[in-house]
Specification:
The protein is mainly alpha-helical and about 350 residues long. It has helices spanning about 1-20, 55-65, 75-80, 135, 145-155, 160-165, 175-185, 195-200, 210-220, 250-255, 285-295, 320-330, 335-340; strands at about 235, 265. The protein has a two-stranded antiparallel sheet. Helix 2 runs antiparallel to helix 6 (about 160-165).
Length: about 350
């Protein structure tokens, strides 16, 4: 009887341990996989066409930080998309590419891309899996040809093995390379700001009075284009910045529709603390300056968004000094330091069987 009782206890313990192990959430593992935040909408990316795996993600990370993607092996994706700067090119108004050549736009952050249907400021790419080809072959960014990149990776002592682990074959193709890069970028999810904690009703987290007032002002004046919780409607608007010296006409460059002149994709407001300067051309250096643009410096451009037009007044957003300070306080609740420091997204350490030559 005693032996039977002990056996029963052991069976219960084993079953309990199994249930406990089954209950371990993915987020607790080394590679969590893609998890849609509970307060986020459904993703736009078709994961069925590119199954996200740890091997694929790790390959994508290597490629994201790999300078061999450029003509002279000096520029990586991470050169203009720096993690500590919200995956932007902090301190540069426009991108600095190969041979220190200057682009015409401020790099957009690599963040929450699974919810995007269009990419770049003009929406010139409509599929994340096609995105990497553009900077690789852009003459002022990486200035390389994809076949040359494939040849360099194929000749490397480690990449064929990494591709085999990720895709079941050591043959390297542009499609596999692009899908691996997508797997890395898809994991760059920012959802741990104070705002997110408040929305999730986490214990002992709430807005201050100033942040709450700023939130109300935001919802009444800004949320139409900067839609929660991603803080972008992913559409294209003319915000009255006007023509710049580069002559960049935004969405018009893609559609050739006059109604799209000077319309640019609405950027997310997340992590603004680390992503200055602002606007598509990096022409405004401070967040305070951005709000002042909307208060008093907007140009009455041809396709100015109707939300900024005011009867018998110059275009803009009515905002007192106090409302401005409240709004700045709210915008600071969108900063996600966990994302900026997430080790999973950081540059892989040399070694670990990876040969650099």
């Amino acid at each position: 009887m005693k032996k039977c009782f002990i056996s029963m206890v052991l069976l219960i313990m084993v079953y309990a341990c199994k249930k406990s192990a089954d209950a371990i959430p993915d987020v607790g593992r080394l590679f969590p996989g893609f998890i849609t935040p509970t307060h986020f909408p459904e993703v736009s990316y078709k994961f069925s066409e590119n199954k996200l795996t740890e091997a694929g993600f790790e390959l994508g990370k290597r490629l994201f930080y790999e300078p061999r993607l450029s003509r002279n092996n000096t520029i990586a994706c991470a050169s203009c998309h720096i993690q500590s700067a919200n995956f932007t090119h902090h301190g540069h108004d426009v991108s600095h590419g190969i041979d220190d050549r200057l682009g015409t736009r401020n790099p957009m952050p690599i963040m929450n891309l699974a919810w995007n249907k269009f990419f770049f400021w003009d929406g010139g790419v409509f599929n994340l899996d096609l995105l990497a080809v553009v900077p690789i072959e852009n003459p002022v960014e990486m200035d390389e040809k994809v076949p040359n990149v494939i040849a360099k990776l194929q000749a490397h002592p480690d990449y064929p093995t990494l591709f085999e682990k990720a895709f079941g074959s050591s043959e390297i193709t542009s499609a596999k390379m692009s899908k691996a890069l997508s797997q890395f970028m898809l994991m760059a999810v920012s959802d741990n700001s104070k705002y997110d904690q408040v929305m999730r009703k986490e214990k002992d987290v709430s807005f201050t009075e100033s942040e709450q007032r700023g939130y109300i002002f935001f919802k009444n004046n800004c949320a139409r284009c900067h839609t929660e919780p991603l803080f972008t409607d992913a559409d294209f608007h003319d915000n009255g910045l006007g023509p710049n010296p580069a002559g960049d006409q935004g969405r018009y460059n893609v559609t050739l529709n006059n109604a799209d002149k000077y319309k640019f994709k609405v950027p997310s407001l997340r992590n603004l603390r680390w992503s200055a300067p602002y606007m598509h051309d990096g022409s405004i250096y401070t967040l305070s300056g951005v709000l002042d643009h909307y208060r008093k410096f907007m140009q009455n451009t041809q396709n100015l968004d109707n939300g900024f037009r005011r009867k018998d007044e110059a275009p803009g957003v009515s905002m007192t000094d106090m409302e401005k300070e409240d709004l700045l306080d709210f915008l600071n609740t969108l900063n996600d330091e966990i994302f900026i420091k997430e080790q999973l997204l950081s540059e892989p350490e040399l070694g670990d069987g990876f040969v650099v030559n």
